[in-house]
Amino acid sequence: MESVAQHLMWFVPMLWLGMVLAISFLEAPLKFRAPGITTELGLGIGRLVFRALNSVEAVLAAVLSAAAVVIAPTGAVWAWLAVTVVILVVQLGVVRPPLSRRSDRVLAGEELPRSRAHYWYIGLEIAKVIALIGLAIHAAP
After folding, report:
1. Phi and psi, residue 110, nearest 5°
2. Which of 49, 44, 74 is nearest to 134 (CA)?
3. CB neighbours of 107 closer than 8 A, spacing ≥ 6?
4. What is the pTM (predicted TM-score) of this model?
5. How many beta carbons lie within 10 A of that of residue 50, not counting itself?
6. Among 20, 37, 57, 77, which one has the highest count of C-beta atoms within 10 angstroms of its own C-beta?
């Protein structure tokens, strides 16, 4: 069991990293450049995709936390894991709610400038990428 948990501590951050890079830094900006995609359609797609991503991220965070309890890793691994989880919690609990309210307003027909919360979310995604890389490096078997 400990061997499986040890491998999960490296594999799961790499899987999570790939998902964040593919969705946040590839799919999200590119969808608005596709022919025929309106702001409303792009927001609708984005909401579905990010809701799914965030749900999977929460599961991956739980898997990593459970694996860490099993193997009792070094302090560096705990620190990188804590940073990663805190970033996710801030994104979901602090930044996403205003973004959701804003997208509700845009979908209702209001024209609004880009919100500061969007920039915070992007900044936190960059920080999460760094944290996931740090976690994988320190947890490598």
Report:
1. -75, 145
2. 74
3. 40, 43, 44
4. 0.92
5. 20
6. 77
